[in-house]
Specification:
There is one protein chain. This protein is α+β, with helices and mostly antiparallel strands. The protein is about 15% helix and about 45% strand. The protein has 2 helices and 4 strands; from the N terminus they run E-E-E-H-E-H. Strands 1-2-3-4 form a 4-stranded antiparallel beta sheet, covered by helices on one side.
Amino acid sequence: MIVVRVELHSAVTRKVTELARMHIVNDGLGNATHGNYRVTTFRGRSCEALDKRVVNRDGMLRNWPRESLHVWNLVCRALVELRYQKGFL
């Protein structure tokens, strides 16, 4: 499982606040070069709220080229799959 966390690190207070979390989970049905991934984001804007694991959005990425693209491409495609690009594309 890949866990993507978005954290705010305050330069003033040095406090770290988790703002968002995404899980990207291999469903095990792919092969050596391509995989399928369940993508889930959770509701909340704090670690405590996100730890409740209330699903905000979820989706699937099928036949993803595992090793030919950097993991940031996977994260980007996951965000697009969950329609987080609204408002700027």
